[in-house]
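Reopening this one. Same input as before:
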Amino acid sequence: MSQIMKPIFIAVALGMLLLLLAGCGQQRAEISAPQEVSPPTTADTAVSPSEPAPPAATPTAAAVAPPPSPSPAPFMMVPEIGIHGKGGFNPAELSLEAGDTVIWVNYDSQGVILSFAQNGREVFSSSFIAPKATYTHIFEQPGIYTYQVAKYGVTGRIVVR
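Same output, byte for byte:
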């Protein structure tokens, strides 16, 4: 080390040592015995250290519980019938209550139209059901409904009670 660098190095080292010692001054942390803390109550509120504590609650009339929230509507399963082209329907027969809904899902590669009959007389038809599309119908009236895809000659049956 050169003659000029040696005194600079020593001065820097001494300065760092003095800073280190200054940081280790006479400050001592007081350690107190643990204190019991009561559990929070419903009247307790969280307050940040920079905010003043809220005013103490004043006793008033008895608290009234809020009305119970309405329970969710029961989950309703909607029957699904798969249209499988020449393979027919799955399931081919279904029983349900008047007012129930049925969904047909076209799993065929071609679009279809369902024709519905009651007592051998056509009562309604579906709209065109494209591949992977659905058709939904609500059966309001009791009875036995047969349905078919005419181009395939496949039939199914719905019994409405």
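So the earlier flakiness isn't reproducible anymore. For the record, Residues 80-160 form a domain with the Immunoglobulin-like fold (CATH 2.60.40.420).
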